[in-house]
Each structure stands twice: as structure tokens, then as C-alpha cells.
Design a protein that fits this description.
About 8% of the residues have low confidence. The protein is mainly alpha-helical and 283 residues long. It is elongated and about 150 Å long. Helix content is 79%, strand content 0%. It has 2 domains: 128 residues, no CATH class; 143 residues, Tetratricopeptide repeat domain (Serine Threonine Protein Phosphatase 5, Tetratricopeptide repeat, Alpha Horseshoe).
Length: 283
């Protein structure tokens, strides 16, 4: 901040000097020069007029010399006398309009700059405090523990938060804690009821708990999920994987091809093509 204000002050001084110096030099004309030139012109006119008023007689020449002497003395006195500067005329006054405007801008811009700089500082501090990566420097286990802690904290604060319960169940499923996953999914179902996503998650839990075997209950939940949403990607992928593992390659290819043809943005097309090609090779 000190650097900001020092730089601003230095720049303002330079700008004011550049703006005002030409205006001051142009707008102020020394009154002594104007008075001197005026007196000299008046002197010449008085001398010419005196020559016309007197003739060539001795007396008139004597009077003419005395008059010219008085005119010369008067000129010297007027030149030596000091006088204040003449006021500037309207045209020279206009020379100061632009410098005045520039001065106002020079004084105003730093204030605006400070306001913007302060807002930028607040925004930068907010970004550093609120938008830094919360998982920076953590390994996978630490990240999972952090997520679990945050979800449990969220559930304690809002016990009927079905999204939090569902995400908690997914975290348990990913960690192979199948019993805890089913408990979390059952709690989710009590809060928001059944849907294709929840039924698929429960079916997947039983499927992986049984060592990637489709148990009767898992099959029931999976069929219920597809009945609610026939195009549910996760349910179809789980069913296709089960067909592939049981050497039912054509059934797996049919499901993967239908997902590929659906142009669903949730589908990984590269992985599907690889899976289809592998299933064709296994046939």
C-alpha cells in the first residue's frame, strides 16, 4: 500500500508539472515589457507632434528643445517605475481550463484506483481463504477420511439430508464397507423414497458384497431401477458387466451398443468401444 501511494504521488507531481508549466509560461506576460513598449511608442508620437507644432524661429526651436527634453525625462521615469502585472485577458484565461481539468483528474484517479485496489485485495483474500484446494497435499486415504468426516458432520447438522446420506453410502461402498453402505442407503430411502439411482446403488452394494455375483435381491433392485428409468446408465452398465463376467458376451455387447447409440453425455464412449471390441474378441 505504501508503494502504491508513493508511486501515485510521484506520478501526480510529474503530470501537474507537465500540464501547468506551459500554461504558466504562456499565460503570464510581464507588465514591465508592455509598459515599456507603450511608453516608447507614445514617446515617438509626442516627438513627431512637437515637430509639427513649432516653426523654425529661434524662440520656437528653444521651446521645442525644452518640450522634447521634458518628453524624454517623462519616458525615463515611466520606464523605471515598477507596476503590478496586468490582468490576463479572456483568451489567456482559457489556457488554464485544461490544466484545471487535468488537475482534477489527477486527484480523482488515485482515489478511484485505491477503491479498486481495495476491492481487488478483498477478492484476492477471499479467493485464498475460500477457493484453495481443501485436499492439497493429501493422499487418497486422507482425502477419503476428510470426505467422510465432512459428510458425517453435515448429517449431524441436518439428519434428514438425503443427499448427504446417499453420498455417505457411496463412500462406504467405494471403501468396501458394504453393511454400512446399505444402512446409509436405507436411511436415504426412508427420507426420499425409491428412485432408479438409489435402487441401483443398493443392487451394486449386494453385487460387490457377493463377489460380483448377481444375488436374487440385487437382481430385483436392479430390475426395479430399470423399470423406473430404462435408460439409467449406471444400472445398464452394472447389468452389462454381469453379462460379460458370465460369458454372455452378446448380451453385454447389445447393452453397451445401446448406450453408445444414445449419445448420452454421461457415457464414456472410448471405454464403451474398448469393452465392445473385447467382448467381440471373447465370443
Amino acid at each position: 500500500m505504501i508503494v502504491f501511494w508513493c508511486g501515485t504521488a510521484l506520478m501526480a507531481c510529474i503530470i501537474l508539472l507537465i500540464v501547468w508549466l506551459p500554461a504558466v509560461r504562456t499565460g503570464k506576460i510581464p507588465n514591465s515589457d508592455i509598459r515599456k513598449n507603450t511608453n516608447i511608442a507614445l514617446y515617438h508620437r509626442q516627438m513627431a507632434l512637437a515637430d509639427k507644432q513649432f516653426g523654425n524661429s529661434e524662440k520656437e526651436k528653444f521651446l521645442l528643445d525644452e518640450l522634447k527634453q521634458e518628453i524624454s525625462i517623462s519616458l525615463l521615469q515611466n520606464i523605471d517605475s515598477s507596476a503590478p502585472q496586468l490582468p490576463l485577458n479572456s483568451s489567456s484565461s482559457r489556457l488554464f481550463i485544461i490544466p484545471l481539468i487535468m488537475t482534477a483528474l489527477v486527484l480523482l484517479i488515485p482515489s478511484l484506483g485505491y477503491g479498486l485496489y481495495g476491492q481487488y485485495q478483498q477478492s484476492a483474500e477471499y479467493s485464498q481463504q475460500e477457493h484453495t484446494d481443501p485436499f492439497a497435499g493429501m493422499n487418497v486415504e486422507q482425502i477419503q477420511d476428510r470426505v467422510m468426516t465432512e459428510l458425517q458432520k453435515r448429517i449431524r447438522q441436518a439428519p434428514n439430508d438425503s443427499d448427504a446420506w446417499f453420498m455417505l453410502g457411496q463412500r462406504y461402498l467405494n471403501g468396501n464397507e458394504f453393511d454400512n453402505a446399505l444402512i446409509a442407503f436405507d436411511r436415504t430411502e426412508k427420507i426420499r423414497g425409491q428412485d432408479a439411482e438409489l435402487l441401483t446403488a443398493k443392487a451394486a452394494t449386494l453385487y460387490y458384497q457377493a463377489g460380483q455375483r448377481m444375488t436374487p435381491q440385487a437382481k430385483t433392485w436392479l430390475n426395479d431401477a430399470l423399470r423406473l428409468d430404462p435408460n439409467h446408465v449406471t444400472a445398464l452398465m452394472l447389468l452389462a458387466s454381469d453379462h460379460f463376467l458370465n460369458a454372455q458376451y452378446q448380451q453385454a455387447i447389445d447393452i453397451w451398443q445401446s448406450l453408445l447409440d444414445s449419445n448420452n453425455p454421461k457415457v464414456n464412449r472410448v471405454k464403451l468401444i474398448e469393452a465392445i471390441n473385447m467382448a467381440r474378441m471373447m465370443k
